[in-house]
Amino acid sequence: MSFKNRNIISIRDFSKADILHILDVAKRLEKKPEPTLLNGKLLAALFFEPSTRTRLSFESAMKRLGGNVIGFADAGVSSTAKGESLHDTIKTIEGYSDVIVVRHPVEGAARVASESTSLPVINAGDGANQHPTQTFLDLYTILKSKGKLENLKVGFLGDLKYGRTVHSLVHALTYFNAEMHFIAPESLRMPADDLIELKKKKITYKEHEKMDDVLKDLDVLYVTRIQKERFPDILDYEKVKGVYVLNQETMKNAKDDLKLLHPLPRVDEITEDVDELGQAIYFEQAHNGIPVRQALIALVLGVTE
Fold it and tell me: Which residue in 53, 63, 153, 241 is the catalytic one?
């Protein structure tokens, strides 16, 4: 299937072949940059929810290929503050740009945006639902650091209930026969629907409450912060904040070739002394957002195949 004008809304919309093709284009663009590839193209970045890495990496990706960016990083400065609907915002922006990137706190908002325009829409995160471009860069990071995606033992630690990056990556890894380990307190376990799906696909997984039970066996550990902003009741957050902390001492239980990922920002779940370890690649992971998002933008605009 051609990627031209295709929306990037959910990782579930992509086959294994699609994913591998996107990663291959990212590798090509990282190895051989094309600074004029997007000359004359304009990206609208509509961030209704706070972001640092995702927003700036989209801007950097676009500009490094010769394109330009318009948009906002605070919904309060847009006409939504006056009551304008998301549909009307998108229909308006449609006339100003070639591709639209949307981050929104409401699940399903990116899909609504894509149904409101003929331009390709890229989901930069919709509530606790999906974050597909993060998933592509996570896969790219794993592939670069481990040399493969197939048959890895991958652990997920922290907020597995509200963590949209986890939900997206878990689904993607089902294509690669990963053995998955979910480490979380009872209140932040993986959603039941996701576990049912893994059973249907005959993917091996186990649930744990203690990190030490499994750390020594993992090839990849994907850590997430406990997301205060996702909790309906602040008291529930207070019960679980700081429940897991990775430091140099705890990392002694991990394999030397473990790769430690985190979508960032971190709060207190990984101490700064871990940054010195060869296993810690979360800043490299963030930087991988550039070639991956370049690949996605170039593909949906039809300037590369």
Answer: 53
53 included as an active-site residue: yes
Residue 3: partners with Cβ closer than 8 Å, 6 or more residues away? 299, 300, 302, 305
Cα–Cα distances in angstroms (integers) from residue 284 to residues 11, 24, 142, 257, in the given order: 22, 18, 11, 16
List 131, 161, 181, 225, catalytic entry: 131
The secondary structure of residue 43, as a DSSP letter, is: E
Q: Which domains does the chain have, with CATH numbers?
A: 11-130+289-300 (3.40.50.1370), 132-286 (3.40.50.1370)
**Sign of the dihedral through C-alpha 27, 28, 32, 33:** negative
pLDDT 10s digits, 4-43: 999 999 999 999 999 999 999 999 999 999 999 999 999 9
Q: Name the catalytic one among 82, 200, 202, 210.
A: 82
pLDDT digits (tens, 9 = 90+) for 242-273: 678 999 999 999 999 999 999 998 888 999 99
**Peptide linkage before 35 cis (omega within 30 of 0):** no
Catalytic one of 55, 103, 161, 181: 103
Instruction: Tell me, yes or no, if 55 is annotated catalytic.
Output: no
The predicted model scores a pTM of 0.92
Instruction: State the residue for tokens 């649930």.
Output: 207
* H-run or E-run covering 173: helix 164-173
Q: For this structure, is 165 an active site residue?
A: no
Please say whether the beta carbons of 189 and 164 come within 8 A: no
Whether 157 contacts 221, CB under 8 Å:
yes
Farthest CA pair distance, the chain: 55
Is 161 known to be catalytic? no
Beta bridge partners of 182: 156, 207
Residue 177, by phi and psi: left (phi above 0), alpha (psi -120 to 50) or beta?
left
